[in-house]
Amino acid sequence: MAHVNNEILWIFIGLFSFLLIASIIGLILSAIKGPTSTITNLNSRIKAWWVMCIISAIAISIGVIGSVILFALISWLALRELITLTPTHRGDHEALFWCFFVVLPIQYILVGIQWYSLMAIFIPVYAFLLITTRMALSGDTHHFLERMAKVQWSVMIAIYCLSYAPALLMLPIEGFEGRNINLLLFLMIVVQVSDVMQYVFGKLFGKHPIVPKLSPNKTIEGFVGGILSASLIGMMLWWATPFTWWAAFLLSLVITLAGFAGGLCMSAIKRDSGVKDFGTIIEGHGGMMDRMDSLCFAAPIFFHVLRYFYI
Question: What residue ranges are annotated as transmembrane (predicted)?
Answer without folding.
Answer: 7-29, 49-74, 151-171, 183-201, 222-240, 246-269
